[in-house]
Amino acid sequence: MNAAIDLDADALIKVERLSAHFPVKSGFFGRPSAWIRAVDEVSLAIRKRETLGLVGESGCGKSTLGRTILALRRANGGSVHFEEKSVLDLPPEDLKALRRHMQLVFQDPFASLNPRETVGRAVRTALDLHKIGTARERTDAVSEIFRQVGLHPALMDRFPHEFSGGQRQRVGIARAIVLRPKFLVCDEPVSALDVSIQAQILNLLKDLQQQLGLTYLFISHNLAIVEHMADRVAVMYYGRIVEIARRDELYARPRHPYTKALFAAVPIPNPRQRTLDIQMRGDPPDPTRMPSGCRFRNRCPYAMDRCAQEEPALIEMAPDHRVACWLDS
Amino acid sequence: MTEPLLSIEGLKTHFFGYDGLVRAVDGVDLEVNPGEVLGLVGESGCGKTVTALSVMRLVDAPGRIVGGTIRFDRRDLLSLSASEMAQVRGAEIAMIFQQPKVSLNPVMRVGRQIAEQFIRRRGMDEAAAWKEAIGLLAAVGIPAPEAKARAYPHELSGGQAQRVMIAIALSLKPKLLIADEPTTALDVTVQAQVLALLRERCKALGTSLILVTHDLGVVAQVADRVAVMYAGQVVEQAPVERLFEAPEHPYTRGLLGSIPVLGALKPRLVEIPGNVPTLDGVSVGCRFAARCGERLRVGSRCETEAPPVIARGPGLQVRCWLADPAAADKERALA
At residue B273, does pLDDT exceed 60? Predict the structure, then answer.
């Protein structure tokens, strides 16, 4: 249903009708009895040097979308273009070369670091794999990256368990940027960190973007953090982008009922704005049995007959503001 | 002046582990008034959960309450016998946790888990208790309560399971409910529903609530009064509006500056430098001094002498030398 997106001249990443499905196995010989469409024909563009925020609740497919764009998991259809190269059908050697430019920052910096490898080694491995520079130059490059992410180069010989959560996330970021990539997927990069440490990492990511001209896909369930980080924001609900717009436009004029419900549910740290409105009924649906038509309809306060019959397409309703909702058409 | 329902003074709960002593709670003073919602905020490891468990007397070895008093409803909880304390738990003080499905019995129907309370503690017969249970499920907003009472915990969503926990916790109409990060594992839309429910049910029953959380947004939405914990101590206590509008402790100010606020863009977030401290060392001076941007000059009293709790007004207490006008003046004169 998603119309092919405009060929955006500034796009670094172009995603068209991208799908990623997971089998739910049961029964005899463990054959798939159902499929979860974690990413279901998603189309979007990420422009050079911008941060595209991707928000949604747990299980909506936002992490899967990020990983599928990076070709870290198999797509079940659609295409991803990085600059002009098609990412998903590259031979392994070319994909490896392309990976220099596309990296991932993980949520849990402890789970993503090898406990038996020094953090310097963890950062250096990428340089070794891509055979960049001499041994001496690689060591210098790692020191330089350490300084850049706010770690003293003397810490290179330490092991992950000697670091705090915030420092480990700095190591994770160092590892992601050591190859001087153009594009980073940041998958909930501060969710595992303490509140007083989150600001350090968010500020660091913003500084690095400025200094290195990076493009980010910033995945988070936290709407306030996404507002702080993103230039444009996409809202995902069970495999689909339901709304995408420039940040200021989306936060000032959300149009999709799901986006509105999400905003209304955010606990604002201001006791004079007690807003905990409940605009949404019921619980999240079973992802193996999505409702017909619009997937949000059984929780939507405005659902109409048409919503059960046809799935709404993502249509431009205002400049640079696309919404997938029948109410709006 | 009404007497506080719960009053904690100088509470110390320490853990005697193989690697040495951890002072998880190290001199906590807190009060909860009847019918009040107290938000207990802090980062991981600050001692907020251990404070809550100490009130329930559910601290496991190698942890032990080594000092202080906990007065609840005119009784000293720390001097009750184990069986007297067991009578208090559930009936007078109840607790819910972050992971509702871990707290529920996976092989017992949820209705039965609620009904059990009435059978064991109130001597009701099965039929009457089951009826009560269904009524409670309806009160916490579970649709089709008769059918859901027959469900097992794995058949519930995370939000429904937390509603069931709330129903169980409030079934005996306790005077105090302690909720430890009750919505941290839930999605934001479900979180809003559960928070609204918690507040509404507690107000309806006149139950006081201690809401333990790391989320300042949750506190602002639900609490009447807030206590901020840092490194095993309460560093600031204030009515909720006052705390958010005029935070006095530099740590509270730092926390509020460090979070992005929806609809109020900040050019740059305030960073609290350094890391959350571990509680295994002996501390001299203020525990926040090393990370504090407003520390009085180096080598000053902040680093050599621990600040006392300074009363700044009704229900307003700060553990910081800056809040002591005389001390701050003297310090400036010296500098």
Answer: yes
